[in-house]
Amino acid sequence: MSLQAKIQDVFNEPACDKNQGKDAKARKKGCSKPLTPGAAAGGCAFDGAKIVLQPITDVAHLIHAPLACEGNSWDNRGAGSSGSDLWRISFTTDLTELDVVMGQGEKKLFKAVREIAERHAPPAIFVYSTCVTALIGDDIGAVCRRATERFGLPVVPVNAPGFVGSKNLGNKLAGEALLDHVIGTHEPDDVGPMDINILGEFNLSGEFWMVKPLLEKLGMRVRACVPGDARYLDVAAAHTAKATMMVCSTALINLARKMEERWGIPFFEGSFYGVSDTSDALRQLAKLLVQQGADPALLDRTEALIAEEEAIVWQKLAAFRPRLEGKRVLLNTGGVKSWSVVSALQEVGLEIVGTSTKKSTVEDKERIKQLLKDEKHAFDAMAPRDLYAMLAENRADIMLSGGRTQFIALKAKMPWLDINQERHHPYAGYDGMVELVRQIDIAIHNPIWSEVRRAAPWDDNECMRDTNIDAIDVDFVAHTRKKFVETTADDLAEC
């Protein structure tokens, strides 16, 4: 299938009920409209594909591009890994102008694959197409097929050059690459009735490790977590699982739906953010496994575990409620966090005064409407000046967002907490909920905010009068400042 046909297929998503309610022409645009190249919010298609695939830890990731396309790959998203560090190295062919003019791209790519295979011997190599190599016509598919035959290991082409669309499209194209070349290529000898897949979980700051012990207590085995802390052979054997949980449908709904069509693996969309959502996710997984033939006693064991864990977490959260109840939160994120984090924060009495729906699906927005009392609190995008106004006018007590908007809160001298992929604390599961509330409490009650909001001594006459230094004459200081300003203004005018 050509890249253009693949893109059309990805955006004609049958698993989206809203999409199927459209006419044939509108349906081709899919659940999320591709953005204009150059205006791709959150990154390009290449970036999106790399985000989904790079956390597969034992795979060598080779970027076929000039050096600038690769940039700094080491820990750029904070995905936790318990295995090999090979995925963090991220190789590049480092194409030069001479390589492009002389048509040496494919030859250089083959040599790079050979060097990686001989030096690192990974179980597989993923090769990423980029804008430059796609425009000059390098056939990475042909090179990967030849390299697979020559070196005896899977060399997987990932055809997602940046110019074809947004990061979200790149997520989906990465899922298609897994379907076409990886999933179903390995048959494990330990298939069991309690095997599950987790899709769209990136293990940011190692937060999936806070959920995995809960699954293991119930006897569930995570056959493949895509992509968080994944291994190539586990992903290749993902077709043997009995149930799938979709954490971020915006990214990999096509992967979950096609795995259900090909191998009969039922899936549902859930969240591990918040007490109620974590409990619901465990119930849904148990229910699907029982429907697939697991022991019905799993349902009772799941309820017992949920009751035990919820009793512990509510006791821990009770200490924070008096300090946080009624505090107002401005949430400037998107995707699954636009509703899952809302639900989590409301459980401890926090009030949501606004949440961004950027990069959220229609289903995400429907969940937000159900969670929020006022639909006006949901906004698609808010200009930085409007975010600043909300904080400066004290209409919110804290902003939760990504690192790119932190300076808006800091300029307004208001608390801010990182909720996106760069964060350093895990927020998933029961323990993650406690950690999230603890970090919000620390941010809001940090004494630094009362200090930075105080007027400077030279701007506060009362402060100057209260000082014990008799030599300071407040009127003299004010007169001197006035003359300085006037003199400076005159000098600037002359310039």
Characterise this structure.
This protein is an alpha/beta fold and 495 residues long. Helix 11 (167-181) runs parallel beside helix 14. The chain contains 25 helices and 13 strands. Residues 37-41 have low confidence and may be disordered. The chain has four domains: 32-181, 3-Layer(aba) Sandwich (Rossmann fold); 195-317, Rossmann fold (3-Layer(aba) Sandwich), CATH 3.40.50.12380; 321-451, Nitrogenase MoFe cofactor biosynthesis protein NifE, C-terminal (Rossmann fold); 457-494, no CATH class. The radius of gyration is 27 Å and the shape is globular. 49% of the residues lie in helices and 11% in strands.
CATH architecture of the largest domain: 3-Layer(aba) Sandwich
CATH topology of the largest domain: Rossmann fold
Total of DSSP H or I helical runs spanning 4+ residues:
25
The overall strand count is 13
Query: Distance N terminus to C terminus?
Result: 66 Å
- Write down the domain tally: 4
Determine the CATH superfamily of the largest domain: Nitrogenase molybdenum iron protein domain
Low-confidence stretches: 37-41
Helix content: 40-55%
Q: Which strand order spans the largest sheet, edge to edge or round the barrel?
A: 11-10-9-12-13
Q: Outline, from the CA principal axes?
A: globular
Family: Belongs to the NifD/NifK/NifE/NifN family.
Pathway: Cofactor biosynthesis; Fe-Mo cofactor biosynthesis
Pfam families: Oxidored_nitro (PF00148)
Organism: Hartmannibacter diazotrophicus
